[in-house]
Design a protein that fits this description.
The structure holds two protein chains of two kinds.
Chain A lengths: L2 E9 L4 H14 L3 E8 L7 E9 L13 E4 L2 H7 L8 E5 L13 E4 L1 H9 L5 H13 L4 H11 L5 H17 L2 H4 L2
Parallel strand pairs in A: 1-4, 4-5, 5-6
Antiparallel strand pairs in A: 1-3, 2-3
Helix pairs in contact in A: 1-5, 3-4, 3-6, 4-6
Chain B lengths: L4 E4 H12 L1 E6 L6 H10 L6 E4 L3 H13 L3 E6 L1 H16 L4 E9 L5 E5 L4 H6 L8 E4 L3 H18 L2 E7 H5 L1 E4 L54 H16 L2 H4 L2 E4 L6 E6 L2 H14 L4 E6 L1 E3 L3 H7 L5 E6 L5 H9 L4 E6 L8 H17 L1
Parallel strand pairs in B: 2-3, 2-4, 4-5, 5-8, 7-8, 11-12, 11-14, 14-15
Antiparallel strand pairs in B: 1-9, 5-6, 7-13, 10-12
Helix pairs in contact in B: 1-2, 1-6, 3-4, 10-13, 11-12
The chains are: A alpha/beta, B alpha/beta.
Chain lengths: 185, 375
C-alpha cells in the first residue's frame, strides 16, 4: 500500500471524526504517516459530517482526499452527496439501516446494517461508528487488527472501552458472517 | 527517541504556547480555534497558569495585555469575527509595546461567513486591521509540527522586540491531525523579555527592556502617543516615538523572514505561497519538476514585515510568478510591488472554503510556462 484515501461520511453526532482519529491512530501504530481532516457544517448536530483519512508510507503533503479509495456512508444525505464522486474501483460501505441506495450493479459496494447491529448487539447505536470501523477494516484491510484495537482503547473513555471493543468485534463479524452476495447491492 | 503522536493543529498551538512559557490565556471560543482554549483551560492550571473565558474578544485581548504588563507571557486565540473585534486592542498593544501573541485560525468571511471552512482572507487585516501606522509581526504555518514551532517563535519575537505577534492559521490546519514528534524541552530556544538593570530613572518606552507592574518602578501605560516615560506627547516627540517602534520591526524585515526555498537556482517559474496552500504547492512542484519544468518555490512563514528583498532576489531570473492563496488577492499585491513589473505575477485564488488543489496549481503553471515558451 502506497497511499489510501478514506472518506468517512454521515451526520453530525455519529462520531465520524472520532472514527477517523481511531483509524489514523491505528495506522500510525502500524508505522504509517497519517492525516485526518474533518469537515462539517455550522450546525451543532445533524448537519453533514465527514472525516477524511489519508494513510501513506510516503510523506503526506496535500492533506485532503482527492480520489477516495474507500467510502463509508452512515446517512442518506452523505450517500447522496459523496457516492457519485467516487470511481468504480473505490470500496464503498453503506449502512443498510437508514440509507436507501438504489441497485448499483458493481463490485466493491457493501450494504450492512451497521446502526442496527450497534443497537441490537452492543446495546446502543452510539457505537455505530466503531461497528463501521470494524466492518470497514475487515473489508478493506487498512490497518492491523491489533493496532485498531489499541487505538480504540486509547481514544475512548475508560467507562465505554469494553463497549467500543465489542462494537469493533461486531463490525468485523458482520462482514465475516454475511454471505458475499448480500454484501453487494 | 520520543514516540509519534497523533496531534491536531490547534493542540500543537496550545502545547507550543505552554512550551514557550505562556502562563496566561484569555479568550472567547470560536470555530475553528476553540480547541486551543479547550486544551489550555485544562492544561494551563497544571503548570501554574491561568485560562480565562472573557465576555468577548475585546475583553480577551484587554486581559492578555494586562497580564503581559503583570509579567506573564500571554496569548489569545480567535477567528475572523473575533479578530475584527480585537483590532482596537492590537493597536493598543502596538503603541504600548506590549508582548502578546494573537492566534487567528482563519475561516471564510466576511462576517460570520462560512464558520467551518478555510480561508487565508485575513492577511491584510493582520497587517492593517488596526488604525494608524503601527509595528506588527505576522507568522503562519503549514504543518502540525510547524504550528508548534511557529507558536514558540511568535512568543520569542514578541518578548524579544516588545511587539504583538499574530499567528495566522486556517480552519484546515487548525483541525488537521497528523503523526508528529513534537520538540522536547530544550530543543527549541525560548526567549523571555529583558528587564532594565536599574529601576532608577528608567525609561519604560525607550528600548526593548521592559518593566512590569509590581517590580517597584513607576509606570504609566497609555494608548495616547507618549514620550519615553509614558507621559502623553504630541508633535515631534510623538512622531519620534512612533518612528522608533516602526523601525524596530521594519528595519529587521530580512532577519525576521522565515522561509523555505526550493529549486530556485534554475527556476523560470516561481511559486510564492504560505500556510495551508503550501501543501498543495509541494505536490504540484513535485509533479511539474517530474515533467521537466524549471519551477521553483518560495514557502513563506513570515508574512509581515514583508520580506521584499527576498522576493526580489528569488524572482530575479524568473519569467513567471504565481501566488496561490485562499482569498481574492492579498499577498499577491505585495509580491507584485516587490517584483516591480519585471515579471508577470499572477494570483490563483479560491473563495468557496475549499483548498486550492495541486492539480489547479500545476495546470496554471504548466499553461503559462508553455505560453511563455511560445511567445
Amino acid at each position: 500500500m502506497a497511499t489510501k484515501q478514506i472518506q468517512l461520511t454521515g451526520a453530525g453526532g455519529q462520531g465520524l471524526v472520532l472514527a477517523g482519529i481511531i483509524l489514523a491512530e491505528a495506522a500510525m501504530r502500524d508505522g504509517k504517516n497519517v492525516a485526518v481532516a474533518q469537515s462539517y457544517g455550522p450546525e451543532a448536530r445533524l448537519g453533514a459530517s465527514k472525516a477524511e483519512v489519508i494513510i501513506s508510507s510516503e510523506k503526506i503533503a496535500y492533506p485532503q482526499v482527492t480520489q477516495p479509495d474507500v467510502l463509508l456512508c452512515l446517512s442518506q444525505d452523505a450517500f447522496d452527496k459523496y457516492f457519485s464522486a467516487v470511481n468504480d474501483r473505490a470500496l464503498v460501505l453503506i449502512d443498510a439501516t437508514h440509507v436507501q441506495a438504489p441497485t448499483l450493479g458493481r463490485n466493491n459496494i457493501y450494504r450492512l446494517p451497521l446502526v442496527r447491529a450497534a443497537a441490537e448487539q452492543v446495546g446502543t447505536k452510539l457505537v455505530a461508528n466503531v461497528v463501521a470501523l470494524g466492518a470497514l477494516n475487515a473489508l478493506a484491510g487498512l490497518v492491523s487488527w491489533e493496532s485498531l484495537q489499541k487505538a480504540v482503547e486509547q481514544r475512548t473513555p475508560a467507562k465505554f472501552r469494553a463497549q467500543n471493543l465489542r462494537a469493533l468485534e461486531v463490525g468485523r463479524r458482520l462482514v465475516e458472517n454475511t454471505p458475499h452476495q448480500t454484501k453487494e447491492v | 527517541m520520543r514516540e509519534q503522536e497523533l496531534v491536531q493543529g490547534n493542540e500543537a498551538c496550545a502545547r507550543g504556547a505552554i512550551y514557550a512559557g505562556c502562563r496566561f490565556f484569555a479568550g472567547y471560543p470560536i470555530t475553528p480555534s476553540s480547541e486551543i482554549m479547550e486544551y489550555l483551560a485544562r492544561e494551563l492550571p497544571k503548570v501554574g497558569g491561568i485560562c480565562l473565558q472573557m465576555e468577548d474578544e475585546i475583553a480577551s485581548l484587554s486581559a492578555v495585555i494586562g497580564a503581559s504588563w503583570g509579567g506573564a507571557k500571554a496569548m489569545t486565540a480567535t477567528s475572523g469575527p473575533g479578530f475584527s473585534l480585537m483590532q482596537e486592542n492590537i493597536g493598543y498593544a502596538a503603541i504600548t509595546e506590549t508582548p502578546c501573541v494573537i492566534v487567528d485560525a482563519q475561516r471564510a468571511g466576511p462576517s460570520t461567513g462560512q464558520p467551518t471552512k478555510a480561508s487565508q482572507g485575513d492577511v491584510m487585516q493582520a497587517r492593517w486591521g488596526t488604525h494608524g501606522d503601527h509595528p506588527i509581526i505576522v507568522l503562519t504555518a503549514s504543518w502540525v509540527r510547524e504550528v508548534f514551532e511557529m507558536t514558540v517563535h511568535a512568543f520569542n519575537l514578541s518578548e524579544r522586540y516588545r511587539v504583538p505577534v499574530i499567528l495566522l492559521l486556517d480552519e484546515v490546519l487548525a483541525h488537521l491531525r497528523e503523526n508528529v514528534v513534537l520538540p522536547e524541552p530544550g530543543e527549541l530556544d525560548v526567549i523571555s523579555r529583558r528587564h532594565p538593570e536599574r529601576l532608577e530613572n528608567f525609561k519604560p518606552f525607550f528600548d526593548e527592556t521592559m518593566v512590569t507592574f509590581g517590580e517597584g518602578g513607576r509606570l504609566m501605560v497609555t494608548g495616547m502617543s507618549h514620550d519615553e516615560f509614558g507621559f502623553p506627547a504630541q508633535g515631534k516627540k510623538a512622531a519620534e516615538q512612533l518612528q522608533r517602534i516602526l523601525k524596530k520591526i521594519e528595519s529587521r524585515a530580512e532577519e525576521l523572514a522565515i522561509y523555505r526555498a526550493h529549486y530556485l537556482d534554475d527556476a523560470d517559474a516561481v511559486i510564492v505561497s504560505y500556510g495551508i496552500t503550501s501543501r498543495a504547492v509541494e505536490e504540484s512542484v513535485r509533479v511539474l519538476r517530474a515533467e521537466g519544468l524549471a519551477v521553483g518555490w518560495l514557502d513563506l512563514k513570515t508574512l509581515w514585515p514583508f520580506p521584499e528583498k527576498l522576493i526580489r532576489s528569488c524572482t530575479e531570473h524568473a519569467q513567471y510568478v504565481l501566488v496561490p492563496e485562499l482569498n481574492a488577492g492579498q499577498l499577491v499585491r505585495e509580491v507584485e510591488r516587490a517584483v516591480g513589473g519585471r515579471v508577470l505575477v499572477e494570483h490563483l485564488g479560491r473563495l468557496d472554503g475549499y483548498l486550492i488543489t495541486p492539480e489547479e496549481i500545476a495546470a496554471r503553471v504548466y499553461d503559462r510556462v508553455e505560453c511563455l515558451k511560445g511567445a
